[in-house]
Hints:
Layout: E1 2-6, H1 33-40, H2 45-52, E2 54-55, E3 60-61, E4 63-64, E5 67-68, H3 78-83, H4 90-94, E6 97-102, E7 105-110, H5 115-122, E8 130-134, H6 149-165, H7 173-192, H8 209-214, H9 227-237, H10 247-259, H11 266-271, H12 274-277, H13 280-294, H14 298-301, H15 304-324, H16 329-341, H17 344-355
Parallel strand pairs: 1-7
Antiparallel strand pairs: 1-8, 2-3, 4-5, 6-7
Amino acid sequence: MLIRKQNGFDDFVCIADRCPKSCCIGWQIVIDDKSMQKYGSITGDFADELNAGIDPAEKCFRRIDTRCAMLDDDGLCRLQKALGGEYLCDTCRIYPRHEEEFLDLREETLTLSCPEAARMLLDGSYTFGFTEEENEEADDPGEFGDCDPFLLDELAYSREKMAEFIKNRKIPFQKRLSAIGAAAFDMQRYYDRGETEMIGAACEGFYDEKTLKDMEPVKAAGIPMDHSYALFGLSFLSKLEVLEDSWPDIISKTIGYFSGMDGDCAGWKDAADPEKSGEEAAFEKLFLAFLYTYLCGSVYDGQIYARCMIAIWSVRFIMLLFAANDLSLTRMICLFAREIEHSDENITALISFFEAELPDQ
């Protein structure tokens, strides 16, 4: 199996009690079956405390208020202190590492809901990219490994073209995102027609200035960075499942902040232009992280346009949230990722939101 790892994947180290937003607070931590069996065999002084902290019916750790029952006052895990890291359940051991498998390929990335992973991405010395290695001992692909290899090749090729294009600073950042959205629209059209061999070709015109100039300005409502559409999208976000108590107020404040503007005012233009804030490199890397998270997953469901638009508008939403709220960019990225990436319900809702822009077949 080919293992493709995000730069820094193997070097990542949890900062534990120094973390500004512990993953042991606010989330339900599910325990895998193997760990449940190990915990059931524990004896000694810690056994009673461990058993009291587990909900056996739900197979998860109980929470005291919003904190995992195993989280000590010093911000460290009592289970790990008592038994060692080898007794952590899969959820705690793996996070924030994320794996996706496609046939004989495994892609390993770091999820941005982790403050340290987000900080690493935004570090000026960090280059988003991947290393590859063959691992003959890696597990065979499981139930999600079965997919169309030709479609996967076309998607992977398109993704590489998009990744190259987003770095082309001869073109304004929002126009780059719009061009990628237009390409994804065409990719979806080819897929729906059964013309899989044309999917990669949809990304061939990125470096042709005439193609960009002549590109239809609106193939779907969400392709350009439009003021009214952005408010519509933020309003939609406000209706999704809430995982973080502060999230509704952040969305509401952002909607209020931009509702008093129009698409021609300086405040809106500055918020939508990362060159103004000096964060262009950061938002380029952020787009790449979302692109690699979402696009190739469409090999399983065919939702090419919707998944690409989630990557595009995740970046745009974070730009607006960052401009309207007194929070660091790292903190805003973490909050957004926690709300969206860790809710299957929210991802499904966003896919439906963008799918609605496609013309009827």
